[in-house]
Write a structure and sequence with these properties.
Length: about 400
């Protein structure tokens, strides 16, 4: 049974690309009616990016797009036309939330800025997600997830201690910090409206939101005046603390020691009797001072065993350890995710049957049951007729005029 906790909430969703669609997907997965307003002539760039089903490009064949847009409905309109904007205005009259992640001024140029939308729907909740927010000296600087990772310091902090910045890709801006901050803000605004009857504008600056991921580093630099060093998989407090190669191709296990007793157990398990007896390694400070030597001993032991054996052996002795899964291994071998029903199979007209990830949380013990992502413009006629009350002749005329793009 689908968890319908947000049934009755409707979004006019004008987000595209990364963090915006992931934000509104959270609501769609839990029962909100998220209507994605998009264009076929200027398609969501994620629809144009792979991986594609069978390697064949197409607006409905992107796995990346599909993963971010489950549960939504799609309406394809030409928003540069007066008629297209009029349709969106009609949709806004029925919507609780209007969402976008364009740069400042873009929605105003479309006649869909906050003041215009509030005239149409006075109690609207308006979510805007520009890179730097809608005001301030940097407001007109634009960027995507990789840009945000760079300017917030995520790139600088991510890498090995003796190597260049590597960066975490777009994961934190697009799939963690910004979508969940946005979702929390919208939920708070919905609660506020329920109590007061008043709507709200949410100006979520994605750079500010992402900085939450590097809070300790910001504080460290503010206090010391020094740029925090990259430590890779190591720790400034504990040793050993790293990812170690195991038997097999590209197989690894993370191992960490959090106290002296765990070090004694680890040294005994890996047969490093000389290290176990060394008083210089009895404390974290001593092990950190000789971290290369300590980690080399652990690496020799893990290299002769498969990752699962390493994990199970160490966990049995109370030593934190975990297999590092690649995506296929995570899907096929992780018992916790399998037990919790994290992976779901959905059928799709062009993507065929494929695996999707569920939200990682349950509400009242219920796991959401996902619905497949939409084809572009798949629900245009249904939305215009069932929600907006347009008759068949009006819809046909809009299509003939190019207002309806699919």
């Amino acid at each position: 049974m689908k968890a319908q906790f947000l049934k009755g909430i409707r979004f006019a969703d004008l987000t595209w690309a990364g963090a915006g669609p992931f934000s509104t997907k959270i609501f769609a997965d839990f029962g909100a009616d998220v209507i994605k307003v998009e264009s076929a002539s200027r398609a969501d760039p994620v629809r144009l990016g792979g991986p594609f089903r069978d390697g064949i490009p197409g607006l409905n064949r992107s796995g990346y797009f599909a993963s971010r847009n489950t549960g939504k409905r799609s309406v394809a309109l030409n928003l540069k036309s007066d008629e297209g904007r009029a349709v969106v205005h009609d949709l806004i009259r029925t919507a609780d939330v209007v969402s976008n992640n364009f740069g400042p001024g873009a929605m105003d140029r479309l006649g869909l800025g906050y003041e215009e939308v509030r005239r149409i729907r006075p109690d609207v909740i308006y979510l805007s997600m520009p890179m730097y927010g809608e005001d301030g000296p940097l407001k007109n600087l634009l960027g995507v997830g990789m840009t945000i990772s760079a300017v917030t310091g995520l790139m600088s902090l991510t890498g090995y201690h003796d190597g260049p910045p590597l960066g975490p890709g777009t994961h934190f801006p697009d799939h963690a910090a910004n979508p969940y901050h946005a979702a929390f803000a919208v939920l708070a605004a919905l609660r506020h409206r329920r109590r007061t009857g008043r709507g709200m504008k949410i100006d979520l600056a994605q750079v500010e939101s992402t900085i939450n991921c590097v809070g300790p580093a910001v504080l460290e630099q503010a206090i010391t005046g020094q740029e925090p060093a990259r430590v890779g998989n190591r720790s400034l407090e504990h040793a050993p603390h790293n990812v170690f190669r195991c038997q097999g191709e590209d197989r690894w296990c993370a191992v960490t020691v959090l106290n002296d007793a765990q070090w004694e157990s680890l040294a005994r398990v890996i047969g490093a009797t000389e290290l176990a007896a060394d008083p210089g390694l009895a404390t974290a400070a001593g092990r950190l001072a000789r971290v290369d030597e300590v980690e080399a001993a652990v690496a020799r032991w893990t290299a002769e065993r498969d990752a699962e054996t390493v994990m199970e052996t160490l966990q049995a002795q109370g030593i934190p350890a975990g297999v590092v899964h690649d995506p296929r291994s995570l899907m096929e071998r992780d018992p916790q995710l399998r037990h919790r029903g994290y992976w779901q199979r959905l059928d799709h007209p062009e993507l065929k049957e494929a695996t999707y990830t569920s939200p990682p949380f349950r509400l009242d013990g219920e796991r959401v049951a996902l619905s497949r992502p939409p084809l572009i413009g798949e629900h245009t006629d249904a939305v215009l007729s069932d929600i907006l009350g347009y008759d068949a002749a009006r819809i046909a005329a809009l299509r003939a005029a190019g207002t309806i793009e699919v």
